[in-house]
Design brief:
By secondary structure, the protein is an alpha+beta fold. 43% of the residues lie in helices and 15% in strands. The chain has 5 helices and 3 strands; from the N terminus they run H-H-E-E-E-H-H-H. Strand 1 and strand 2 form a beta hairpin.
């Protein structure tokens, strides 16, 4: 029943979303949108190597999208890229393949388990996870291009040093 997915704890999470807003200088931004219900989540992410150092989001979503965004915002800073990719897959499996919900710091995601029975609600529940992984992919792609560009730059002599003939 729909009462199962809109329980008190989901409503509490949806009504208390941390880290709302936008970052002034994110490493990447991503938007995820559900055509089915019209929900949209925009996220900004900063990372130091593989670790998330800052996060903000603009959430225009139903209670389920708000609740999943709330859970993400509570735990994303300090998480690493591999963990967040696995989290997205774990939530997808939980919803679509009867997989177990994540454990540890992400255990609150189990509150979203009843959504499994309502396919029309899967997309809005997944928005924050999809947007975060999209932003991570953007950051890693930029870092890869920068590393490749650095390898192709010619070596130069330090300023004030004559070039040596060789």
């Amino acid at each position: 029943m729909l009462n199962d997915i809109y329980n008190k704890r989901i409503i509490e999470l949806a009504g208390n979303i941390p880290r709302l807003g936008r970052l002034t200088d994110p490493d990447a931004s991503a938007t995820a949108h559900s055509k089915l219900c019209g929900s949209t989540v925009k996220i900004d992410l900063k990372m130091d190597g593989p670790v998330v150092t800052d996060f903000a989001h603009d959430v225009k979503a139903c209670a389920l999208g708000q609740a999943s965004s709330s859970i993400m915002a509570r735990h994303v800073v300090g998480s690493n890229a591999a963990e967040l990719r696995e989290l997205r897959e774990a939530v997808r499996r939980m919803l679509k393949e009867n997989g177990a919900p994540p454990e540890g710091k992400w255990a609150d995601i189990a509150l979203l388990e009843p959504v499994r029975d309502y396919k029309a609600r899967h997309a809005s529940t997944m928005l924050t996870f999809d947007a975060v992984v999209d932003a991570i992919n953007q950051i890693e792609a930029k870092a890869g291009k920068q590393a490749a560009a650095a390898k192709t730059e010619p070596e130069t002599e330090p300023a004030g040093q004559p070039a040596t003939a060789g």
